[in-house]
């Protein structure tokens, strides 16, 4: 995520090299070596970067052995160093790793299990290595099948990093040009905008306007892609159904609706897929990141009709997409989610966590503190806390959000910030959050204790 108000590529919650003097000599030396060989494109989190050497469950450990509560990393969905994933990958790597032009069993078994998680007609899957590759392929398919070019995205969307996907990723900042064949629309804003039916109508009217705008420029319409929880726009969940209404408008205009499930998918929202809360069946679905618990694998899921329309005319092959080792990791992730009932756990743990954050905000307000918290939003273990000026209750306050991020990091609790105005705390822990110490909820207790302390210290 990058600042929209800067002409430079500045990352929210990024390390400031100007603060290097406050770091230990060992940390400065490691950062110097890193910058020398990795270059200026790489970024580090936090004013004082965390030097991690080990992970376990929902925890990371630094070089000095300190335990950090990981409330941010969605990629290791079933936990850092998950034993089942470790065993599956090691066994497969010791047996066979090759590509999908040979006939193997496991990729077919996994494809059957994965597509069974979707409603008809979503019944086929193409595997890639990364979410960016999968989004690139989904957009390419939509353009080929519809004959169009124009793609609609939300104004601060993040979808990936290939050349094609960067065109539909405005959150990459002002130095990332957005071409005429990409139309930007505003996400619903439950703090500053309307709600309910009015919000749905306003959103769909923007979609109609974008389609009309393409027509006026002579750009044929291909479709729309949305992260199902609009994470980079500040996690916009309400009103339920606004994405289904948008998809209907898209289809009426001959386009395809693509659900980007790279962040919300695989149980994070308390359901298998984030789009489910909108009563929606997309035309194409992109999945990735948590799919392999950190082992690179992603995919596009779609209907036989769309896949045939693309595959009968275009030759597509991804050498390592769906390789046996990545499939072994992905299979182990499904086993973990299903056998440990992590979707129901995500819903329950997320409710405890969001309720606790709301209570802390309410307590601060009750004792007369000038609270900066405008709203706490959440679905499962994907929670957003929006910070605003206490003067008017609506003006975004990114500095307040960043102060909480840094305050929590100082207490060894890891989160970050996001959103159009960079004022939204993003809480997104591994799905195994609170699974150790059943009945006591130790991770939630630790998070809320730290959050309460930071809120109290900052007068928020």
UniProtKB/TrEMBL annotation:
Record GO terms (molecular function): pyridoxal phosphate binding; transaminase activity
Transferase as UniProt keyword: yes
Keyword Transferase carried by entry: yes
Keywords: Aminotransferase, Pyridoxal phosphate, Transferase
UniProt xrefs under SUPFAM superfamilies: PLP-dependent transferases
Transmembrane segments: none
Family: Belongs to the class-III pyridoxal-phosphate-dependent aminotransferase family.
Stored PANTHER family: ALANINE--GLYOXYLATE AMINOTRANSFERASE 2-LIKE, PTHR45688
Protein name: 4-aminobutyrate aminotransferase-like enzyme
Organism, scientific name: Leucobacter exalbidus
